[in-house]
Amino acid sequence: MSAFKTLDDGDFAGKRVLVRVDLNVPMENGVVTDTTRIDRIVPTIRDLSDKGAKVILIAHFGRPKGERKPEDSLKPVVAPLAHAVGRPVAFADDCVGETAEAAVGMLANGEILLLENTRYHKGEEKNDAGLVAEMAKLGDAYVNDAFSAAHRAHASTEGLAHVLPAYAGRTMEAELTALQNALSTPKRPVLAVVGGAKVSTKIDLLENLVSKVDILVIGGGMANTFLAAKGVNVGKSLCEHDLADTARRILDKAKADGKEIVLPVDAVVAREFKAGADSETVPVDQVPADAMILDAGPASVAVVAEKIDGAATLLWNGPLGAFEIAPFDAATVAAARHAAERTKAGKLLSVAGGGDTVAALNHAGAADDFTYVSTAGGAFLEWLEGKDLPGVKALMQG
To answer: What is the percent of the chain where pLDDT is above 70?
Structure first.
C-alpha cells in the first residue's frame, strides 16, 4: 500500500470539506440503538471543525435503491450525532441540488452540516459522473472516513476522490495504519485465527492468508470441514463435505510453503445445540456418530495460546466455536482473553474484524485491549482476501 494524505496534510480553514462518513447505524422506530459508528467519526469532525472548515457530512443509510424512502432518512441521526460531537449539526433534505447548495451556503467556518442519504439518488451506487459532479460543487476538498464502505466504488466513496483534493479521515487513517502493520509490513511471526461456520464464505480469505502468514489457526464449523478432509469422522457436526478438495488444496499449499495450519485436537460435543445442553470433551478422532462438535476443547485452546505466545502479529476473524450459546463460548473467550493480555503487555500487535468477531470479542470482554478492532465487516474481509478496495485505492492516487 502506498501513502495517502491525512488531515495533517491539508489547510482546511474556511474550506468547504465534504466528509464521507459511515452512519449506517442500527435503528428501531426512528431511534439509534448503537452509536459505535457515530462515536468513531467524532475525532475527524471535531478536528476539521477546530481547523475552521465548513464540515459537510455525506453518508448512505439502508438500501433505498434511488428512491426517497422516509424510513431511510438520515434525519434521526442528527440528534445523537450532535450529542456525540458536542456541537450543533444542521441538516439538509438532499445531498445535491438547490436544497444542499443553500444549506452549504449558510455555513460559517467550523460549523457542521449533514446531508440527506446519498442512496436516494440512483447515481450513487452506479458511481455516476453526473452525480459526482453535483456533489463536488458543494466542496473544496474531500475526506473519506468510511473504511467500512471503501469496498464499494460509489459516487460518494470513490468518485469524489478523483475530482477533489482527497484525504483520509482519522478513522480511515487508523484503519489503514492498523491493516498495513498487520499484513502489508508486519512484524513476524504472523498468526491468523480464522473461525466461523463455513469454509465456502472464506475460501478467498484462507487462500490469501495461507501465503501471507506464518501460522493459520482454523476454528469453528470451518475446522470440521478440514478435519473431515483429513479423514476424521465429525459425526453430525456442521461440515461442508463437498469442499474437501478445497480444504486439502489449502493444506497442501501450506505444507509446500512451510506454513503451519493448526486444527483442533479435541472438541466439545453435544447431541443438541441449545443452552446448557449435555456436553462432553473428546479427542477430535473420537466424536460419537450421533454428536456434533460445537466448540474447541481445552487442549486445543492451550495450543492456540501457545501459538499466540510465539507470535508478534495476530489477525483474528471469526469465533472458534458456537459462541452465541454457553458453554460453547469457552474456547473463543479463553483465546481472545489470552490475546488481549499479550497485547496489553506490549508483546503482540492484534487486529481483529468482521461482524461475528466484534461480537465475540465484546462478549469475551477482550475487544478494548486488542490493538485495533475493525467494525468494517465486508471491507475488512475483502482486504484480508487481498482485494483492492476502490475507496482506498482512490485516496492513494492523490
So the answer is: 99
One-character DSSP codes across 219-247: -HHHHHHHHHHTT---TTS---GGGHHHH
Q: How many independent structural domains does the chain possess?
A: 2
What is the per-residue pLDDT across 159-179, written as a single tens digit (0 to 9) for each?
999 999 999 999 999 999 999
* Beta-sheet strands, E only, within 128-287: 141-144, 166-168, 190-194, 215-218, 260-262, 266-270, 279-283
Q: Is the domain of 375 the same as that of 242? A: yes
pTM of the model: 0.89
Which residues does the annotation mark as catalytic?
Answer: 37, 198, 355, 378
Q: Are residues 157 and 196 in the same domain?
A: no
> Which structural domain range is residue 227 located in?
186-384
Long-range CB contacts for residues 268-276, cutoff 8 Å, separation at least 24: 268/293, 268/294, 268/295, 268/296, 268/297, 268/321, 268/327, 268/328, 268/330, 268/331, 269/235, 269/237, 269/293, 269/294, 270/294, 270/328, 273/322, 273/325, 273/328, 274/325, 275/325, 275/326, 276/326, 276/327
- For residues 230 and 277, state if they share a domain: yes
CATH of the domain at 321: 3.40.50.1260
Tell whether 181 is covered by a domain.
no
β-pair partners for 217: 193, 262
CA 95, 100, 105, 109 torsion-angle sign:
negative
Residue 179 lies in a domain: no
What integer best gives the mean pLDDT of the chain?
Answer: 95
**Domain check: are 159 and 197 in the same one?**
no
Would 176 be classed as within a structural domain?
no
Q: In the numeric block, which cell numbers belong to residue 140?
A: 473544496
pLDDT digit string (tens) for 293-338? 999 999 999 999 999 999 999 999 999 999 999 999 999 999 999 9
Q: Is residue 312 part of a domain?
A: yes
